[in-house]
Amino acid sequence: MRRGLLLNLISNVVFFVSGYALHFFLGNTMPPAAYGVVGTIITVLDFEYMFVSNGARQSVASEISRKRYDFRDVVGKTLAFQLIVVAFFFCVNFLGAPLFGIVLNDATLDRYFRIAAFLVVVNGLQTVLLGVNDGLQRFGTSALLSTFYPIAKLGVIPLIIFVFRDDPVIGVEVGFLLAVVLTILLGCALLFVRRDSLPKRRSAADGVERIPFGYVATHTLSFSFFFIMVSLVLSVDTLIVKAVVEPASMAGYYTGAMNFGKIAYYLLQAFSTVILPVVAKLVGEGRRDAAVTRTGELLLIAFVFILPISVVVSASSGDLLAAFYSPSFDVAAATLSCLSFSNFFMGITVILNMVLNSFGSSRFSDVLSIVSLVVVIPVFIVSARTFGITGIAVASVTCTGLAMLVTFARTYRKVGNVMLRRTWIVLGANVVLWVLVHVTFVHFNVAGQLTLESGFTSLPVIAVLYAAIYVAYLAVLFAAKVITVQQLKVLGK
Questions:
Q1: Cross-referenced Pfam families, in alphabetical order (predicted)?
Q2: What CA–CA distance (Å, rounded) separates 9 from 308?
Q3: Where are the alpha helices (DSSP H) in 53-167?
Q4: Contact assessment for residue 227 and residue 55, using Cβ atoms and an 8 Å cutoff
Q5: What are the tens digits of pLDDT across the range 242-283?
Q6: To the nearest whole number, what is the mean pLDDT of the chain?
Q7: pLDDT tens figures, 349-404
Q8: Residue 369 burial class via C-beta count within 10 angstroms: exposed 0-12, middle 13-18, buried 19 and up
């Protein structure tokens, strides 16, 4: 598990970095109008991917890990329901392509959405493949596929340069399509090579029931609905800022803050990928106490290694934005300070909900999703209109913080105490860390002083300072034996 968690963290970092690299190329080589078309298509597809990605992946991983039903029956019925979902969205994109052109006032979108329809299909199939590997606890394979895919997407660059110079939008779509197909082929090949280790077919004679198709449908949709809520909470604020905050430049400042604020959430996704099948397997084996212990240990690791990233970014937000963009972005310093914690809180909320689902409690996630969608959007709009980008960031961290606390309370009642004493110590250490970093950067202007003395620009200097602070923080925790190498080894077994 330790290896799988590390590889999933690496794959998320690769996804994050390769995405920035690809958009840097597209934004600097494509005409603005064409790049706008790409952005429009990706935005629509991202919303559709919410229905065909996390829902099926988490559902099939959970059921395979619990071993309550026959492996092939679970995979077959999950795949069948997934095909129904992707068929619906294929028809929406392919048959509704002319309507997209009319609504978005661009007749050229017709053919692009017809091609994009096939992206939904292959993405849906890839998701099931990842979920199967997660359920089998082949986290290394899942991480390999999740790392291979964003790297393969960079194939868009030579396609646009050498093949689709006259129509780069199609080049982007073909590149994305080929990347998913290659990832699926690689995943299937890896499953075939290790086919002998797959669970054997079991039937009613073995005391194993067939999984009801209706249960597969509701379980998958429950996960999908939850992740739609998560995505909207983390993304709708940007659209609201664009719509209601003046001047227009504030949307750019908010986007800059959001780009750094999401780092913690991307990293915590690796934990949510691992924790569901691990805990579900222990619950399925009747080892409830072991599942609670493992959950507490994984949360400890998340707080030890991920929380300080949010803390350091929050405490030095003004210097980071000014160094990466320009001094004018300092106006979004308070915004980034809030968003860095907001995304961490949401990441922990996702992890805890995966734990609750492992214990067979999905209704809470459904209720949390409904309440969040009803409350968050109007609160964001009012906050943005009244207090601008700082106001909506404060609203964001408040909403996600409350969601996390409520989920912790539900987890305590349903599962047990998953907050170890050492986790509370880590929380206290991070409060001290925030104060020290804030005083260092804001009051003593260490980054600025070192920039003048070294002759380097402030961004490399800040990167070195961040690395030094992170290493020093971990050194203190290991020296105080809050976390030890032996504990990490035991956790990974």
A1: MatE
A2: 16
A3: 54-66, 71-95, 97-103, 109-135, 139-153, 156-158
A4: yes
A5: 677 777 677 767 877 887 888 888 888 777 666 666 777 777
A6: 80
A7: 988 988 887 776 667 877 888 888 788 889 999 998 899 889 999 999 999 999 99
A8: buried
Q: Which phi and psi angles does 435 have, rounded to 5°?
A: -60, -45
| Token couple for 304 | 């030890």
CA–CA separation, 265 and 247 (whole Å):
29
SS3 assignment, position 466: helix
Q: Nearest-CA neighbor of 282 among 143, 128, 416?
A: 416
Supply the pLDDT for residue 1.
Answer: 53
Q: How confident is the model at residue 408, as a pLDDT?
A: 93
Other beta carbons within 10 Å of 35: 18
- Cβ partners under 8 Å of residue 367, min gap 6: none
What pLDDT sits at residue 167? Answer: 74
Question: pLDDT above 70 covers what percent of the chain?
Answer: 81
Count CB atoms within 10 A of the CB of residue 327.
11
Residues 6+ apart with CB under 8 A from 390: 334, 335, 338
Hey, what are 351's tokens?
Answer: 């992890």
Q: Which of 374, 343, 29, 278 is nearest to 171 (CA)?
A: 29
What's the CA gap between 453 and 106, in Å, rounded?
Answer: 53
Instruction: Compute the distance between CA of residue 174 and CA of residue 24 in angstroms, rounded to an integer.
Output: 19
How big, in percent rounded to 5, are the helix, strand and coil portions of the chain? 85, 0, 15
- Between CA 422 and CA 315 the distance in angstroms is 23
How would DSSP label each residue in 144-179? HHHHHHHHHHTTHHHIIIII-SS-HHHHHHHHHHHH
Task: Work out the widest C-alpha separation in the chain, in whole angstroms.
Answer: 77
| pLDDT in the model for residue 379 | 92
Buried b (16+ CB within 10 A) or exposed e, 86-114: beebbebbbebbeebbeeeeeeebeebbb
Residue 410 confidence class, pLDDT cut points 50, 70, 90: very high
209 pairs with which residues across the strands? 69
Looking at this protein, which amino acid is placed at residue 37?
A: V
Q: Which of 486, 41, 58 is nearest to 297 (CA)?
A: 486
